[in-house]
Hints:
Elements: H1 2-31, H2 52-55, H3 58-108, H4 118-122, E1 131-137, E2 144-150, H5 157-160, H6 163-172, H7 192-204, H8 234-250, H9 256-262, H10 272-276, H11 301-305, H12 309-318, E3 325-326, E4 330-331, H13 345-356
Antiparallel strand pairs: 1-2, 3-4
Amino acid sequence: MIALNSTAVAWVIFAIVTIGWITYFFLNKGSARAELGSEVEMAPNRKAYYDDEQLEGPRLERMQLLGVLLLVTLVIGLPLYWMFEPSRQAGAVSGEQERFRWWGEQLFETTANGGFNCSGCHGGMGGSGASAPYAITDPNTQEVTAVNWYAPALNTVFYRFSQEEVRFILNYGRPFSPMSAWGAAGGGPMTEQNIETLLVYLKSIQIKPEGCLGDSEFVNKADPYVCEGGTLPQTTQAEIQKSVDEYLAKNPEASEGEALFNSNLASGAYSCARCHTPGWSYDQPGVTAQGAFGWNLTGGATNSHFPNEQDMINFIKVGSKNGAKYGLQGQGSGRMPGFGHLLTDEQITAIVEYVRSL
């Protein structure tokens, strides 16, 4: 901010000096008069100059004063420039990021407002409550049914996915869901620059964590969008607990793990059932955990894939990183998000115990 203000002051000084020189030029030009005989070409040394007393007295002193002023300007100005330069560069980066954020916001807008209609499915500011029209084809009867697919909230997307994973989803979409490929790399209409500016906008709308270590909100070098030691704000934690309590009120025999698995938690940001229960995303849920976008978790399949319960807990925390090994001979595809920044260790453990009991 200091550097941006100093730049503005520098431009004002530059404008004043420029106007001063122009004014000086026209005033002198207007007041000058032709010397008698100037119509004849005269020798350059014809005009009388200052005498020795004037030349070596007041004029010399003026030149010396001017030299001292220029020296002082250099001695003070250069250190000040070096002092403000890092801040100026930071201001330039901040300005660029703000332009990217604004461009990304325009892309996120509805089609009617000139955007790519991201907000049409995910809601304004990436919150919950929005849905996307979608056609479901029955694999047995080939009957096509129009449904409203509840889109996940995006204001916590970097709690669940890394930047590279979000970029991949934007480029190539999510198969078997309304999320189509938007990047040119996946055959969509957005350029690489569009995707980058959209990522900047998505970062700007993330729910800010609390209790971060260090000076920055996001100081974890491996995952710079979730701060080290930080947790979800109390308001978001309260939303999670509210969803759990509502589910338990309707299903008094259910465990906390079942409630966490099936509830629409954190303003639509998370639900295991969204991916693992068929029809959950469009309010026509089938058999719980029987598999949809994600695995079928029933019939002991989970226990055989994760013989060690702690391995499954760790997997849910970090998610399915592309190419990374997990469980028993499993290799990540990047489709399973990590929930270690959204849920507590106790909540994840409760979910694992419920799934392993299916």
